[in-house]
Amino acid sequence: MKNLSFLSLAILLLFTSCNKEKIKTLENQLELKKQEVALLQGQIDNLQTTNGSLLERMADLSIISKAGAESISESMKSLSQQYGFIQDLTSKMQSKDSLNLALVMNLKRSLMDINDEDVFVEVRGGLVHISISDKLLFESGSSKINARAKAVLGKIAAVINDHNDLDVIVEGHTDDVPMHTSCIADNWDLSVKRATSVVRNLETDHYVDPARLTAAGRSEYMPKADNSTEEGRRKNRRTEIVITPKLDQFFKLLEAPRVSG
Q: Taking Cα atoms as reference points, which of 131, 125, 130, 129 lies closest to residue 93?
């Protein structure tokens, strides 16, 4: 019986010893697992932080991309408007050039019996200029239109009246020889009075709308030739009739379109 009890005790101690070893092993394994879990948790936390940062940056990029896309869209819209404006302007300028050509042809046909030295028609600076010598229009030093000139002005007025959408500027020009009479103060005065005489003739004798007419004196300050020779001075003594688009329409034509945004 004693031997049996001793054997049972020995078996119990052996079993207890084995269990302790197993428990110790399990505890060690558990500790390792805890360390692995802690390491993995740290990695997860780091990944979450990185992902959060990436998401924020992606959101910023999304905003930037949206703003960039809107900016590009506005720029393209602006370019489209500018391109349309240029096309429209080009078309209108081509139409104006065609009109100028038609005016020149009509004027030259009407004035074909007049000496080119007395009346010269050309397009200059995009406008039609009719240059009339002073000897055809006036007596020397006078602003009174002679009889022959009235017939010439009548032919020019007929063409002008066919184009009611155009304005007319009459410019008086002189040479640089100073002059003074009881009726004329100086070259400025002479150039203005001659321009006014032509404007008045176009209005009263040929029924050109006075609202379309402008009289301007240039005196000696826009010469066509050298005033040092008689030939040059002769060319400079002239009256020019300039046919122009209506100024308000012309400036409106040059206005750039408003860019939205």
A: 125
